[in-house]
Specification:
Distance between the termini: 25 Å
Order of helices and strands: HHHH
Helix content: 40-55%
Number of strands: 0
Radius of gyration: 13 Å
CATH topology: 434 Repressor (Amino-terminal Domain)
CATH architecture: Orthogonal Bundle
Shape: globular
Largest sheet: none
CATH class: Mainly Alpha
Structural class: mainly alpha
Number of domains: 1
């Protein structure tokens, strides 16, 4: 899963999303699916790292670990 930091960096970038996609060598729809967590990504996914490079975010701030909560909810 991509981090909030990456989503925010794309949102506040001076570049439009299609420009970010072009610079990251992605289709704009792929960028959208990745940023909106529709398409699952693994830590180290090169597409995410290319997006981060375009928006100036360090690689270590791009991913969120997907921890399982065991299926239960806390009350």
């Amino acid at each position: 899963m991509v981090s909030k930091e990456l989503r925010n960096a794309v949102k506040v970038s001076n570049l439009r999303s299609y420009q970010i996609a072009h610079e990251a060598d992605l289709n704009p729809s792929t960028l959208s699916r990745i940023i909106n967590n529709i398409e699952s990504v693994k830590p180290g996914d090169p597409r995410v790292l290319r997006i981060a490079r375009v928006v100036g975010l360090p690689p270590e701030k791009c991913f969120v670990s997907q921890k399982s909560n065991g299926g239960g909810s806390e009350i």
